[in-house]
Write a structure and sequence with these properties.
mainly alpha, globular
Length: 104
Amino acid sequence: RFVDAAGIGQYSLSLLRPEERDELVAIADSRPIPSHCVVVRDGLDPAIAEDLSRALLALNEGEDRPLLRHLYSVDGYVVADHDTYREVEKLAREHGLVRAADLD
């Protein structure tokens, strides 16, 4: 009862009590998209950003991969950009959840 509408991931539903889930009304679903995003601040030294990206992507390989599922319930990391979330943006616009100026 805090907001009229929200975009959430399926994982978020498991954090709700059954009676809270019963109150939700889904209005749209997106295709599967990456979650647990990692972003860096504008102006960060590109070499540092690249080192971080390389280190996170390296977790997809080898003996540490099971730690990702155990700690974060994720399958691994992928490189994503704004286009990765374009469908979510489209749904938000179609349902009046954001104004064009909010995303431009």
